[in-house]
Specification:
The chain is an alpha/beta fold. It folds into two domains: 2-170, no CATH class; 182-300, no CATH class. The chain contains 16 helices and four strands. The protein has a four-stranded mixed beta sheet with strand order 1-2-4-3, covered by helices on one side. A hairpin with a 5-residue loop joins strand 3 (133-136) and strand 4 (142-147). Residues 86-293 form the DUF2268 domain.
């Protein structure tokens, strides 16, 4: 297994010193071009033909620090992600997470992995909702972490990377296309967060789960999501998965769901599944969602009260 690190701190230093008119293209080529295959798989244009067209840079700027804001003013933030120990810890988290699967009998088809950590934009409403850190690992072989570096987010990055590694493994076995359902994404997020807490402890449970209490889960989230598991189309799925605040930010119609409703629901759904079946998180990670949902019909019963 070959795990490569793209040291974003070196790139940020270059961009910070570059003339303003060169920052965007320098960033695009050095930070985003190494992930070209990921963008191609996702059908995201590398560079829009029109000035305000959607491309990788527009996607980047939703939660990450836009390159035109990478100046000497963020030298402190760059310094916080510049130590060898920080990068070693991130690589160790990815190595440990990925190697755990073959150690438990799950042979991975992907052998080459590339990861980096980007500076989050502290002004991003989406990133603020997740308390300053996030990740992206749904395309096998490619993993991003994002954080506004501070004493809270830096120690939590290892769990966030483990979460993304779980996605990276799952989608080596499960096909993702336009027919993906809300049920699949709830299962996927539940698997990823259970894997992260198994690896690094429940004290590092992400805010996308930890912010939901038992009453909200049992009374507001479960009864609604139960009826929506088969919906497809990301514009329909997103409000249930992410909640109304993020749905509105993405110009989707809100559905009266709290922050990251689908993540919290998935986390406790997978706990229910693992306890009911006795299967390991490793086996569950590569199990189709329909099988997991068939085994967990009791989770949705009104009498089944889940403790958070």
């Amino acid at each position: 297994m070959n795990i490569r690190t793209l040291r974003s701190d070196h790139i940020y230093r270059k961009v910070a010193q570059a003339p303003h008119e060169e920052k965007v293209e320098l960033f695009r080529q050095e930070m985003l071009a190494p992930f070209m295959k990921k963008w191609e798989i996702q059908q995201i244009p590398f560079k829009a033909e029109e000035p305000q067209g959607f491309d990788v840079m527009m996607l980047n700027n939703i939660m990450n620090l836009p390159p035109n804001q990478v100046t000497d003013q963020v030298s402190k933030e760059i310094e916080l992600i510049s130590s060898d120990s920080f990068w070693s810890a991130c690589e160790e988290a990815i190595t440990k997470s990925l190697h755990a699967f073959p150690e438990h009998g799950v042979k991975l088809s992907v052998t080459d992995y590339l990861f980096t950590i980007q500076l989050g934009n502290p002004e991003s409403p989406s990133l603020r909702l997740s308390e300053g850190y996030s990740g992206d690992g749904g395309i096998p072989g490619y993993i991003f972490g994002t954080l506004v570096p501070n004493a809270y987010t830096i120690p939590r990055m290892k769990a966030a990377l483990a979460h993304e590694c779980n996605h990276n493994v799952r989608y080596q076995f499960i096909q993702w296309d336009h027919t993906v359902t809300l049920g699949e994404l709830i299962v996927s997020e539940g698997l990823a967060e259970n894997f992260a807490t198994m690896m690094y402890g429940e004290e590092l449970l992400g805010p996308w789960v930890a912010k939901t209490n038992a009453e909200t889960l049992n009374k507001r989230i479960k009864p609604v999501i139960k009826e929506q598991l088969q919906i497809t189309g990301f514009h329909k799925i997103a409000p249930y998965l992410y909640g109304d605040e993020i749905a509105i930010l993405q110009n989707f119609e809100p559905v009266h769901m709290p922050y990251s409703a689908g993540y919290a629901c998935g986390y406790y759904l997978i706990q229910y599944y693992l306890e009911k079946t006795g299967r390991s998180i490793f086996e569950a990670t590569i199990t189709p969602a329909e099988h997991i949902l068939n085994e967990t019909k009791g989770f949705w019963d009104e009498e089944t009260i889940i403790s958070c």
